[in-house]
User: Fold this.
Amino acid sequence: MATMQFDLVSPERRLASFEVNEVQIPGADGDLTAMPDHSPMITTLRPGVLKVSGAEGEKSYFVTGGFADITGPSATILAERAMPIEEVTAELVEELISASQARRSAAKDGAADVAAKYHADLTATLDAIVGR
Amino acid sequence: MPNLKDLKNRIASVKSTRKITKAMQMVAAAKLRRAQDAAEMARPYADRMEAVMGGLASAVGKSDGAPRLLAGTGNDDVHLLVVMTGERGLCGGFNSSIVRKARAHASELLGAGKTVKILTVGKKGREQIKRDHADRMIGHVDLSDVKRLGYSNAADIATDVLSRFDADEFDVATIFFSRFESVISQVPTATQIVPAVFEAGGADDSGTLYEYEPSEEAVLEDLLPRGIATQIFTALLENGASEQGARMSAMDSATRNAGDMIDKLTIQYNRSRQAVITSELIEIISGAEAL
Assistant:
């Protein structure tokens, strides 16, 4: 089966880099799956879960946002904050949600919708993760 | 001529100074390694970000719908200088050279009749700039409690700068920091961050045509603030490495100077000790002869 290079990088370090068969990406306009030889594409991300499946099985990462740069032979995810889903803790959930809440109440007019959507996506994702 | 006891005390004190500078040098060397590793690890993100932004900016930049962060306000009157320095001294000319660069830039702008506002990051820079630009300083970011620089520190600075931009407080923003070249060479650098400048063509050099989702403009709108935060983060990391590098070489030469001084003082000490012995001998001999 064809594989593609998958990289997950945060501003502070490279979190993952290996060959995969497919990547499920939480795009801003909806989820999408990138497989080898996908047409070149750049999409922004919403808070959600990134799923990759490769030779070693499936792996999931939680991302708070960022963007994905997909080319035929590779998929690079640039996430502001990302971690393996197993490392999401209750404290972190609290922290993220309260930060997002604060931002939502501080945002005005145009930014308010964006902040509200971000908050909704974030809570939905985190609830799903923690409630597993 | 100082007496023997004074000399002995001097030597002891210079020796303990040498121990301190030696220790500081070793600590700086260890920290430098860590700072360099951090800068190394941040590189993939920054490079990719730059490439994507470059491609996007050259695609959208010319159209009328370009975001303000890229196109600018259309004016060039109010300049914001973000001066990044260290929180601590004892690192040679590191802080002063950044401040000197910023000051030269500020006086050039003032000479051209522009308004200058200054935001400082790091205590040392603020102290030096306060002397002649106290009324132009609009803020200060304190990083002295930060043990390990994280992206969130940079993101906070970026948010601050961007909210000032949205409030029309300035037209052009430039960051001042020191680029790390090697342990002995750190180059004070000025980079304009608002309106954003990117080397054109980045992502396009492979010739691939990207599809953007939701749209080129929306992606660019979303990415620009991140790009600026990334630039600030890179600058902070470079600065961190430069500071440690500068401290390391400053402490190295301080240690060497202390060593030279100890040698000189020891020679002086031995000479005066011998002089004392000689004069004692002369006294004894001349006393014996007189008998």
Summary: The first helix of chain A runs from residue 90 to 106. Chain A has a mean pLDDT of 86. The helical segments of chain A are 90-106, 109-130.
